[in-house]
Amino acid sequence: MDAYLIAIAIITAIYVLMALGLNLQYGLTGLVNFGVVGFFCVGAYTTAILSQKGVPQYITFPLAALLAMAFAWPLGLVSIRLREDYFAIVSLGFSEVVRLVATSEGWLTQGVQGIPGIPKMFGTFSGTTQALAVLGLLVVFNLVAIAAMLRIVRSPFGRMIEAIRDNEEAVKALGKDPAGFKIQVLVLGSALTGLAGAAYAHYIGFISPEQFIPLITFQIWMAIIMGGVGRISGALVGAIILMVFLEGSRFLRDVMPFISEVAMASVRLGVVGLALVLFTMYRPQGLMGDFTRK
Amino acid sequence: MSLAIQGLTKAYGGLHVVSDVRFEVPKGALVGVIGPNGAGKSTLFSLITGFLAADAGDVAFEGRSLGRASPMERARSGMVRTFQVPREFSHLTVRENLMAAAPGQAGERLIDAFFRFGTVKAQEKEIAAKVEETIAFLRLAKVADVPAGRLSGGQKKLVELGRALMTGARMILLDEPFAGVNPVLIEELSVRIRELNERGIGFLIIEHDLPALNKLVSTLHVMDRGELIASGTPAEVLANPRVRDAYLGGAAA
């Protein structure tokens, strides 16, 4: 049971990193990024491929984040000046392109078979010690990310991205270019997502294209919506709620043994969907959202 | 000459929204543009400030042709607009709205926000002092810490004016500043505009509310169906039969 809880905590911590990135992009800046999983995938494959070649993790992790940024930057350059709903579609398309490239470019990614045997983090340890070390590292990542987010929110940069979220035309009328800010935000958020991808790859030990479907993107969206869009604490709490629903619904089988294993997978998604509906109906500002703000 | 509008033209398909409009706004002047609904006033504003691309014509500000300059470049050159429907930063407080408008902030660069904390803090202090002055001038002190989205229509217009002032604009274009504003605040707003004008800031004002504008401006331009049909002092313009016909729909004839 302990091992199970630590495992869930690790996955949650990985989701929190992505939720923090998306919260920066959408919650604070209003950038509708439907391609979160694409950057996650880039991070995961970067570290997996390099690790196969014997590159140590302290190099592959930063490279995973850097490569995710390197993908985000040109994507932002070409598409961020589009209307926001167009950017949403472009980003979704981007994540699907990444997944299809991972599927088809077998020479690089081993195609549908995926990349097995990705070395574990803290491989010199074993059992609970190793799991706790991984969790500890992820908590450190998250703390650094949260500290950075707080710094951003309290800076003039943070003020400006919130202004962009509230009214982009007015920002232009003041002589400031929203596109530059949005690209920086896209790139920075993608770095966190890429890092999350690297941690995921090393933790699970095996990646294949089918793990990087748009469902992951929408799970992160659910997390920040349930937690409270635009709140840093919301990203944290939202990822935890998401995991409680995803994992908690696993135990539904104990009370509903008549449902098959396969059907259960759908029921679990249904539970999360129902939670999302209830949240948007009764607590649209999210759990950590401010009651006083409109 | 501060602002020269040189034959601006914009058509959507066969519909001429703005046709060959030309007039000048002298330095430090208070000039109004009136016209019935759909006369093309707001479109003219968008053409002047670069939010729409003109089919023909140009705008020169302080002797420099703006050509195809972006809205941002135009604003940075010292000519800032407000909007007919206020575009406040609704989740930011009034104070934050004004802070955000200050130009050239080091802290708006991520690197500086993280690593040049001292510089950023010192600059924030400077900007904050200027914001306090502006808030006092616009009598917004009571709502300074209220999210701008919760203000009344008139207060939002004051916030927009405040933001324009924070940019250091030498020419401010107000799009229907009195629309949806209560009479007391209209008077208040007029007084503020006059005071700012005395300090040397030029104004070009689109307005529907004639009485309020007449008292304020020295020169009035009248648009109807995309064309400039009359120009002059408010008294001259209002005596013009063509204006009475267009504006009052012939009712006064």
TrEMBL record, chain A:
InterPro entries hit by this protein: ABC_transp_permease, LivM-like
Keywords: Cell membrane, Membrane, Transmembrane, Transmembrane helix
Entry's transmembrane regions: 6-24, 31-52, 58-78, 131-150, 185-206, 218-246, 258-282
GO terms assigned for molecular function: branched-chain amino acid transmembrane transporter activity
Annotated Gene Ontology cellular component terms: plasma membrane
Topology term for the membrane: Multi-pass membrane protein
Main location (coarse class): membrane
Compartment(s): Cell membrane
Descriptive protein name: Branched-chain amino acid ABC transporter permease
Organism (species): Azorhizobium oxalatiphilum
Automatic annotation (TrEMBL), chain B:
SMART domains from the UniProt entry: AAA (SM00382)
Keywords (A to Z) from UniProt: ATP-binding, Nucleotide-binding, Transport
GO molecular function: ATP binding; ATP hydrolysis activity
InterPro entries: AAA+_ATPase, ABC_AA/LPS_Transport, ABC_transporter-like_ATP-bd, ABC_transporter-like_CS, BCA_ABC_TP_C, P-loop_NTPase
Lineage top rank: taxon: Bacteria
Key word Flavoprotein present: no
Protein name (Swiss-Prot/TrEMBL): ABC transporter ATP-binding protein
Organism of this sequence: Azorhizobium oxalatiphilum
Upper classification of the organism: Bacteria, Pseudomonadati, Pseudomonadota, Alphaproteobacteria, Hyphomicrobiales
